[in-house]
Amino acid sequence: MAHKCFISFKTEDHLYKRAIQETMHLDIVDKSLNEPIDSDDEDYIMRRIREDYLADSTVTIHLIGQRSAENLGYDEQRFIKRELQGSLYNGEYNTRNGILGVVLPHAYDDIYKGTYQCLCGGRHNSVAINHDTVVHEFSYNYYIPHEKCAHGEDDRYCVLVKWDDFASSPAEYIDRAYQKREHPIANKIRVKPKKL
């Protein structure tokens, strides 16, 4: 089944977006914004993105590079934040998208930190999805608060993958993100999460 995919990215990472569109030969309907919207009105731009690109998309592919952090400030991240908010919103004229975070090679060391020994006696992967690496809309819905010592796949709405793994099997990861829309964890997401 072809999924309707919107690609959310920083301008610096446009070559990865182009690689998805031109070289991966995916069975998707590309709902991505390829030409800038000619306006200085941020609300108008976001309304057009929501109505023309996000409204009938089903998966948002969020490219995570070194300029994706919340800590870079609202002005730097306003479009990414609002694209993810639009992707997560489930209401009239808009259905919630699955969210697939694709970590780009130059950001691997910032995000993937190896494993650690937990107080529970087990070993867990250390994945730095936080304000230093992504916007809050992604980090909250990747690490949805709970009472366990670590997050498993059933505890996350957002799906995360390294670029190399995504490139070798993109349809698999897009489908994983799509399936989260009907997963019970979808009831716990936050569109505009409060900062902690």
Describe what this molecule looks like in 3D.
This protein is α/β, with parallel strands linked by helices and 196 residues long. It is built from seven helices and seven strands, in the order βαβαβαβαββαβαα. The protein has helices spanning 14-23, 42-54, 74-88, 108-111, 136-142, 163-168, 170-179; strands spanning 3-8, 28-30, 59-64, 98-103, 112-117, 123-127, 159-162. It has a five-stranded parallel beta sheet, sandwiched between helices. Strands 5-6 form a two-stranded antiparallel sheet. The longest helix has 15 residues, at 74-88. The model has no long low-confidence stretch (mean pLDDT 89).
Please outline the helices and strands.
Elements: E1 3-8, H1 14-23, E2 28-30, H2 42-54, E3 59-64, H3 74-88, E4 98-103, H4 108-111, E5 112-117, E6 123-127, H5 136-142, E7 159-162, H6 163-168, H7 170-179
Parallel strand pairs: 1-2, 1-3, 3-4, 4-7
Antiparallel strand pairs: 5-6
Helix pairs in contact: 2-3
**Biggest sheet overview:** 5 strands, parallel
CATH class: Alpha Beta
Shape summary: globular
Task: Give helix and strand order, one letter per element, not per position.
Answer: EHEHEHEHEEHEHH
Please, how many domains?
1
CATH names the topology as Rossmann fold
CATH architectural grouping: 3-Layer(aba) Sandwich
Radius of gyration, in angstroms, nearest whole number: 16 Å
Average of pLDDT: 89
